[in-house]
């Protein structure tokens, strides 16, 4: 709240009060806010970073990428990539350096509501969802059931209300939709209707992306308006590690870049399976792959917005299964974030996946040490950060609320310790000890810092054991269930007009029933 | 295992195999080990550290400490402290600098079993228990019952078996013992009989400490042997923040220093209550208090071993209650660790307390983000790191096992990412992509790194949802309960001979029954 707004508020006008409530609190009046600057945790030294960078260039120059599609070969060879006799595309160092020089930097990721626009560069950190879970997890019984379009819409609605989830990327697969066109289209539909925050999603074929773009143009009020503020980005797995292009994804990549849609260049190798088991080797391969993607994007359209998406996953080497909650995962994602910073690109990575099937202590600790380290490393966009279980196979709506608390706390650590003459508090210490009451409970400083320096949980509990027993000994899951129900009963975003929705429903096979999108008498009970 | 030992093993001698099993694996054959070097997370800049240091010197010079006991005043004024007309002791900057110059550095903390000796200096990190919880928590029902000597012994036995808990400090109060002498003596007894790892505990009066020292001499085989390898340190709350000496603790401090027992100089202010609400101010006050304690110790005996114990706690400013699981706690403890490193002293701090009353997701995440950051900041001795709940009011044996997994994972992050020509894996990538199977599952490197680069949980779960359902959907608490029961049924340390125990029982009121200290037919069932 600016000084002006604050004064307006004091004048007591109804409009002014309404404006105040609508406007977010100014950053300095909240303990944490989106885009806090990380970078105090550095798993890689500068020398490590150089070594990884040069190794990635070697990989691209000498090994290169297999399976490029003809249109990709055409645009990439035109800028200097070489098609080798073994069918692989290799990338001379000069091409990578040239690409890095012209790649898009400092592009905002827009939201339907401009309050949620993000500026994910430098060491600024934003947290969001992501994933393609195929199950919804019941937090009490541990039941895993198939996820639906309605679930996706509900997750988006919950994200829309949570302070510490800054963007929404499609988290689950709409499994009741067997037609790929319907699935991709409705995934995008449920996401953009469910939240006004920035949305990310993916497509398996250009046709469904073209259709979705038409919907997005309609929502934006025209293609020009969409291109001014593209509020949906494409999560694009353009690579099948190790070092092979994915044909379908590449076709969608080309459409997105030409359609003004930012692209998350996502390489999701798994150390020990599709990437080297050594953490450094896994990062080298991922960096090489994403740099190849960056060449691709810039060959189509120089300076098109692309996110450096090194998502190095981890295998449990005993079984080969993914271990998203492992500490090796924290190291890989934090190291990957540092590489993105080194290139001064928007660095997107994954954190907060857990191997646990339910929101138990394991889910809590695996998410938390990953977030604490990846966040403090200064990753710009942290995907998979809330709700995910079973190493990306299951999604739990109640966990979203729990994870929102984890992220709020981690953001407080990212904000760090302010060391100034005022915060050193010499005069407060002197007065308290020599003149005052011998404690700081009622000190001016204490009251002043209550809202700005301390963050409080939404579903986390800080009662005494006595109070807790009186409340019936609730665990955090109990509180999350209650709060989730409240949100789903009451929060139905209405930022897209009925008329626009009608026009979309006339042209496309929308499968989310209107009834699911508004408060009903039954739901309100 | 060294090359020599390995060859001996292959020769097949029974003795050699026995020696191999007894010897710990060499560090480079395990993924993590005690004393890994942290320091990659730095919440404070060098300038911040300087500012805090100088402010702490100002506090000591201008405000000083109240309530020193006569013997303390005598030794401290002798080295240069000033007794002011308001009764406070102040400390000229030169005295602090002089003290810092002669303070003990690089002293090991010994264990009854030399395998567990610690070298807590530089940025080496060790995790242990601590606390004075008054309740034992049932992890299923959430029942809080009064803690007993038997519980303390059981906790020590569990710690004795866990890889990632490196020392044992008294965690609970023996509440059935109402006599202070019996309580202090038996606390020490149950601890040193329950584990061969380094023990920390505290005393409220010199008499019980003197008696305990006699026991420790007997266990060591004489006072000289004890003084050579003191395997118990004294946790000493010599200060009542803000800036007042605690009389009883000071008396015990003097006995410990003269008795060759390392002292943990513990200042446990609570930001917003007994320390400033600003995090920087809280650290300033704590640093000043512990420096005063350091003057005290070195005034008694120059170079006596003392641990720089800045345990800055946090208040929830809305209620004044302690919030041990808060993110502000992580910042305070990590910042305090940096201050200890700045002084090149052994830095002890607290991490892993949770506000949750039970081992739920909240307990998991609060412990994990604290450990991840405090551990990576390079705190030398991390107390309160396992088992604690309800901001130090409750202790849960099963949580010890869960927290052991958290610490193992955090240690893996402390070990970091090795970036060498070998780990860069260029040749492995080349072979896999150009000649090999297109994946790394069976690569030489993968098999080689399975044990050394990846850490695996003890009670954490990595099964697939399908396997998990087949197992009956256990949460981590279920697995911890089973494993805890196994340990308590089977692990009874017998490192102290029956004869020594007899001699102790003859002279002192030991209240832990012999039956609790050995496997019974019933227990073995």
Automatic annotation (TrEMBL), chains A, B:
Comp. bias intervals (Basic and acidic residues): 1-18
Methyltransferase is among the record's keywords: yes
Organism classification: Bacteria, Pseudomonadati, Pseudomonadota, Alphaproteobacteria, Rhodospirillales
Keywords noted in UniProt: Methyltransferase, Transferase
Annotated family: Belongs to the trimethylamine methyltransferase family.
Region (Disordered): 1-31
Molecular function terms from GO: methyltransferase activity
Enzyme Commission numbers on file: 2.1.1.-
InterPro entries according to UniProt: MttB-like_sf, MTTB_MeTrfase
Record's protein name: Methyltransferase
Any Pfam family the entry gives: MTTB
GO biological process, alphabetically ordered: methanogenesis; methylation
Origin: domain of life: Bacteria
């Amino acid at each position: 709240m600016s000084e002006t707004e604050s004064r307006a508020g004091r004048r007591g006008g109804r409009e002014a009060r309404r404006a105040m409530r609508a406007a977010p609190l100014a950053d300095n009046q909240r303990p944490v806010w989106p885009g806090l600057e990380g970078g105090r945790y550095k798993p890689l030294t500068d020398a490590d970073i150089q070594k990884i960078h040069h190794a990635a260039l070697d990989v691209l120059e000498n090994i290169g990428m297999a399976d490029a599609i003809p249109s990709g070969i055409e645009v990439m060879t035109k800028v200097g990539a070489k098609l080798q006799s073994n069918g692989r595309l290799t990338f001379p160092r000069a091409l990578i350096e040239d690409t890095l020089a012209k790649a898009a930097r400092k592009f905002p990721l827009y939201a339907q509501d401009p309050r949620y626009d993000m500026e994910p560069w430098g060491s600024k950190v934003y947290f969001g969802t992501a994933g393609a879970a195929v199950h919804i997890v019941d937090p009490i019984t541990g039941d895993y059931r198939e996820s639906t379009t309605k679930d996706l819409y509900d997750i988006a609605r919950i994200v829309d209300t949570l302070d510490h989830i800054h963007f929404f990327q499609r988290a689950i697969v709409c499994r009741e939709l067997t037609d790929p066109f319907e699935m991709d289209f409705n995934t995008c539909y449920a996401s953009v209707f469910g939240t006004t925050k920035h949305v990310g999603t993916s497509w398996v074929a250009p046709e469904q992306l073209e259709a979705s773009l038409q919907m997005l143009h309609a929502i934006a009020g025209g293609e020009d308006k969409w291109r001014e503020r593209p509020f949906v980005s494409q999560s694009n797995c353009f690579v099948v590690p190790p070092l092979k292009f994915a044909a379908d994804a590449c076709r969608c990549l080309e459409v997105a870049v030409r359609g003004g849609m930012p692209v998350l260049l996502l390489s999701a190798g798994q150390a020990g399976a599709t990437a080297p088991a050594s953490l450094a080797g896994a990062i080298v391969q991922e960096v090489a792959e994403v740099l190849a993607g960056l060449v691709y994007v810039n060959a189509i359209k120089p300076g098109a917005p692309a996110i450096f998406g090194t998502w190095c996953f981890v295998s449990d080497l005993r079984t080969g299964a993914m271990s998203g909650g492992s500490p090796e995962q924290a190291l890989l994602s934090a190291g990957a974030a540092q590489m993105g910073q080194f290139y001064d690109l928007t660095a997107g990575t994954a954190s907060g996946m857990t191997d646990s099937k339910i929101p138990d202590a394991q889910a809590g600790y695996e998410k938390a040490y990953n977030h604490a380290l990846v966040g403090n490393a200064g990753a710009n966009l942290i995907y998979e950060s809330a709700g995910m279980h079973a190493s990306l196979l299951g999604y739990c709506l109640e966990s979203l609320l729990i994870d929102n608390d984890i992220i709020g706390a981690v953001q407080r650590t990212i904000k760090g310790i302010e060391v100034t003459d005022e915060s050193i508090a010499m005069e407060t210490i002197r007065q308290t000890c020599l003149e005052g009451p011998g404690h700081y409970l009622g000190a001016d400083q204490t009251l002043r810092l209550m809202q700005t320096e301390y963050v409080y949980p939404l579903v986390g509990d800080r009662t005494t054991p006595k109070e807790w027993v009186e409340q019936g000994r609730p665990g955090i899951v109990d509180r999350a269930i209650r709060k989730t129900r409240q949100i789903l009963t009451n929060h139905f975003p209405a930022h897209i007009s009925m008329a626009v929705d009608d026009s979309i429903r006339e042209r496309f096979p929308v499968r989310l029933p209107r009834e699911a999108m508004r408060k009903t008498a039954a739901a309100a009970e």
